[in-house]
Every structure is written in C-alpha cells, then in structure tokens.
What we know:
The chain is of the alpha+beta class. The protein is 42% helix and 24% strand. The protein folds into 3 domains: 58 residues, Arc Repressor Mutant, subunit A, CATH 1.10.10.10; 49 residues; 91 residues, SH3 type barrels, CATH 2.30.30. The mean pLDDT is 87. Keywords: Transcription, Transcription regulation.
Amino acid sequence: MNRLTRITSILxxxxxxxxxxxxxxxxxxxxxxRTVYRDIKTLQEAGVPIGSENGIGYFIxxxxxxxxxxITEEEANALIVSxxxxxxxxxxxxxxxFNSVLIKIKSVLRSFEKENITKLENRxxxxxxxxxxxxxxxxxxxxxxxxxxxxxxxxxxxxKDEQTLRKIEPLGVYYTDKAWIAIAYCRLRKEIREFxxxxxxxxxxxxxxxxxxxxxxxSKYFSxxxxxx
Length: 229
C-alpha cells in the first residue's frame, strides 16, 4: 500500500469511531507509531481538523465530513458475502437494516461494478440450515444497549412453559448456530440472564435508563464458563 492510499484509509478509520488510538492505526497498517504520527501530521497540515488527547487517541472535530466514500470492488464483494450470511441467521430486523445499508452502498458503485455484484449474488450462498429460530428484535436490543434504555418484554420460558412480563437491561448479544441470544440483567429475577430472541413475543421500549456497565464484556462473560468447566 502506497503512502497516499494509507493516509486516505487512516482518515476513513478516524471517521469510523469517536476516538482512535495510534496503536490501532499502527496495528491495522503494520507500521510504526512514528509513521502514524507523521501521517496524522500530514492530514492536519492538509486542513483536516484532527484533535488529540494524551493517553486517549485521535478524533475528528465535530462538524467535519468527507464526500461519499467510494469502495473497491473487493470490498463490495465482501458485503455481498455478509448479506448472504446475515440473511441466513433468522433475525428480520437485522436483515432489514443491513439490506438498507447495502442499497446505499450499491448506489455509489460504477456501472460495471454493479453488473459484477449482480453476477456474484447468484453464485454464492451460506450453508443451508434445516432449522433457524426466527426473531425480529435484534435491532431494538442493539439500540437499547447503546442508549442504555430499559426494555419491557413478554418472554416465554420453555422450562416452565409460561409467559412472563419482565423488565431487562440489555448488556450484549451473541449468535448460536440457530438463534440470537440477549444477555441482560433481569429485574424480575434480579440477576443476569440469557434470553433467546425467538422466545420474546413482544418488546416495549421504556423511558427508563440504566447505568452502563463499562466493565462488562462478552469475553469476560464467557470466560466464567471456561473457568468453571
């Protein structure tokens, strides 16, 4: 990768997150921290308003934006693969959101790239699953996690064969080979529980908020099971 391409890619990376560390940039492009500092300085001298905080990272000043980003054919192909995988995982809200993004991305492709995408769409498929538990709540739960909003759900328990109304504080989500699972603090049971999304019959977002647990991560959560086995 030449320097011009790398600097442009660094600018795109800076726009992808609120704050990006020099190490993240160095690891992605396999360059030294010294090279990162030089590239950031080049962008600043070109007029890009990049701020920095010692020990935290770099950020783009609010209000700055680039023209629509052009993507390569290889990147578009990767999106088509992702679309096929997502369409086979069972959650209608995720499929709808991703398809909306994909349409916007396709709109900036050149004519021959659009033709190639059409060819690829009919020549690739994920493994065909005999059974997928369908749901439609992933988008709402993701939004709840980022906005720390309490959700009221109607949940059907297979073990007791009963439906309960409970309020939950979503902490994370993961996908098994058949279904999406939400990890959340359950106010009814007063502990962290797992909820299969296909067993939720209704979700009502509330105006209540909960404290964002900064120390929670899926890697820590799953490590508890590894240590106990």
